[in-house]
What we know:
Layout: E1 8-12, H1 16-26, E2 31-35, H2 38-47, E3 53-57, H3 65-75, E4 80-85, H4 90-100, E5 104-107, H5 112-154, H6 156-175, H7 182-189, H8 200-208, H9 214-221, H10 223-231, H11 238-247, H12 258-277, H13 282-292, H14 297-312, E6 314-320, E7 329-330, E8 334-335, E9 341-343, H15 351-357, H16 362-366, E10 368-374
Parallel strand pairs: 1-2, 1-3, 3-4, 4-5
Antiparallel strand pairs: 6-10, 7-10, 8-9
Amino acid sequence: MEQKTLPRVLCVxxxxxxxEGLALQLRRDYQVYTATSGQAALQTLKEAxxxxxxxxxxxxxxxxxxxxxxxxxQRYPEITRILLTGEPGRDAAVHAVNxxxxxxxxxxxxxxxQLRSALDEAxxxxxxxxxxxVLLQETLIGCIKALxxxxxxxxxxxxxxxxxxxxxxxxLSAALGTRHFWQLETAxxxxxxxxxxxxxxxxxKLYYGERLTPEETTLAEGAPLVAKNLLGHIxxxxxxxxxxxxxxxPQAIGDDGMVETGAAILRLAVEYDSMIAQGHATNVAVQTLxxxxxxxxxxxxxxxxxxxxxxxxxxxxxxxxxxxxxxxVFLDDLRTHMGTLLxxxxxxxxxxxxxxxxxxxxxxxxxxxxVLVNSSHKLAS
Length: 381
């Protein structure tokens, strides 16, 4: 018979005796973790994924319960938060609710049956939140991916970049320990949306880092506002919009909050991709970003590791256009015989692009192109 997995609960109190009592009360029905400070609790959450509920005391030295639960909400919004306190003062309660958006406010000493009831309801709340998040990811992100694939055909310069930035941003997020950061993934996919309002010629100049006229600069600066207006009325996208807005500001990461972290990752991925598109070598781009001091050194270190590993796993091949496969990356602009840009260098081949290949003439399909190829790619005959 398969053993039932118990819900994970983290209890936080600066008095070890109280933690021992809580663990003793709850161990039959919950997998109990304990921490004697706010910092220790955050470290536990980082090392033990899958936590459903955090129960924290209010009065603790250093970081109090309200501050801790605020951090938990920012970093792990799916975790249900309960405050257990010996001071039922109104001001303390209001502060805790406002800062940490707690699920329950319990006073000490708390009867075991009341604590268990609150925890049971908190676990249900966590599961409801998680189920909604999964549904949101599967439907919303799936629709956005399809939209970006289609837009990459009509505007390959901007939305080809969006796909590369999304891949790099999600890999950076995973390297930092936040693998299921759907808000960042969505923000990265939509990061180039505002460019649909710009003339194609201007988008190409921005892509290659060419000098702009004052009028073109004004148009380009308005692109983020276009994206905000297009996305502002879609429910549940508020954190995505916050990341996009924060990423448009040239500033270093301020703290470990979800929006600030996502914005720093996205800003770094976009700037790195821009430098590569302008012809800089990988090592030059990384060193330039490191010297700029706009990003946490550890974040740039993760970027250097990722792009170094990816470049070593790829090789340059010259292939007929008709045999390119999804995931390959063009190393040169692809233009028609009339000079029209079909896809820019750096464009990643997609299934939608391969569908478009069917409309190309046999002469063009026979032309050879330089692409980056992974060892996993299987070439068509």
